[in-house]
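Let us practice reading a record.
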Amino acid sequence: MSERALVQLATRQHGLVTTQQAAQLGFDRGSVTSAVAKGRWRRAGIGVLALGATPATLHQRTLAAVLSIGEAWASHSTAARVWGWEVRHARVEVIVPGGRKVERRNVRVHRSTRLDPEDVALADGIPVTSPARTLIDLSGRITVDELATCLDTALRRRQATIDAVDAMVIATQATYGRRPRVLSDLVELRRCAGPAESPLEARVLRVLTQAGVPLPTCQHRITVGVKEYRLDMAWVDAQVFSEADGFEHHESRKAFDADRHRTNHLAAAGWTGVHLTSAFSDDEIVEAVRNVLALAKRPDRRQ
């Protein structure tokens, strides 16, 4: 019996071991009970132990639920948080094959008749629904802008691809809690414009699409003189760019001032900027972009 080996195993599992794993390392029920009574370990779920000194983080609570249930994967908002996406989260959610009936305290258990290999993955040592499946599962319970932000995050971090999400959409029927058509529209928008880098950019893409305004290219790179810039959004042919503006978008006054210098440099090279903030209404965003694009088409602007 080696408690050191048990601790080493726990460090690879967010501070957790199952009682079955403990038994395999020589810890019988009495040894486990004694270790718990002395505070070296604590019970983290049915059949799951946690090192007494480890904090009960979301990752630990999630893996504890998965290990306790067995043949389960973190899902929905919990999966989103494991992937590092910003979503509202209340209690741990997991998904199990449809034929299983299992309950755990403070855990929401979903059942699914379809859990194919492309539906599941492993993230940070935790069995979890794949990014594409997670997006589908979230599509009916969060706002369009929140879903767009999750999609953009997954694409930027290369956790998912446009094609993978598109394939998941095609394989999914609309049901309560799922809106594959909404996700499909967001995917097609990113196929044309690329992923946005902020909730504001995602919102701009959405409202421009709804208004029938030409879409920009997101994160467009341009060289002006010896400097290379990356523009949040760019209408390249019109030489118009837009920034996700606002003082909160900049980490310091120095960064804010540097951004103003960049705007001046781009203006000298013939680019026109349209500054949008989160305080703008949808109509104000559309009006601002339309006006600047219309100005860019004027013959006298190119003279």
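A brief commentary: The radius of gyration is 25 Å.
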